[in-house]
């Protein structure tokens, strides 16, 4: 029995996610590379890809955000009338296979509609409800996601 065989399912998923993450520039990496994200820089992306980053515990805001995804999904579906489904796949751009992404949600019945779920402690960068104004780091992330999966 190998070490991988002894891992429980969630640990196996984590190993696959980390392995995939090193093989592509992910949608969240692009904002870091462009200097648009406060969560990293070109250097941190480089170190992550080489496996040289120190392991960091999940921050409290990130942990809360992950736990709130179900609630945010429900809020979105209720306010728009569009039911969503989780999407746990890893997708690569059809032309540039070194670019990849994970999606949060897709619309039920219209897989071309993707939804990126975010919770933040501030509304800075966000427009009024219903506007298309979103922070540049998130706009960049979603554009890369759309390009990878042919979404709108």
Could you explain the architecture of this structure?
- The chain is of the alpha+beta class and 152 residues long.
- The protein contains six helices and six strands.
- A three-stranded mixed sheet has the order 1-4-3, with helices on both faces. The protein has a three-stranded antiparallel sheet with strand order 2-5-6, sandwiched between helices.
Estimated structural class: alpha+beta
Radius of gyration: 16 Å
Helix content: 40-55%
- Order of neighbouring strands in the sheet with most strands: 1-4-3
Q: How far apart, in Å, are the first and last alpha carbons?
A: 45 Å
Please tell me what the overall shape is.
Answer: globular
Kindly state the mean pLDDT as a whole number?
86
Give unreliable regions as ranges.
Answer: 1-12
User: Sheet bearing the most strands, described?
Assistant: 3 strands, mixed
How many beta-strand segments? Answer: 6
Q: DSSP helix count?
A: 6
- β-strand amount: 5-15%
Could you give the order of the helices and strands?
HHEHHHEEEEEH
Summarize the structure.
This protein has six helices and six strands.
Secondary structure elements and pairings:
Layout: H1 3-6, H2 9-22, E1 25-26, H3 27-33, H4 42-50, H5 60-80, E2 84-86, E3 90-92, E4 99-102, E5 105-107, E6 110-115, H6 136-149
List keywords for this structure.
152 residues, alpha+beta, 6 helices, 45% helix, 14% strand, disordered N terminus
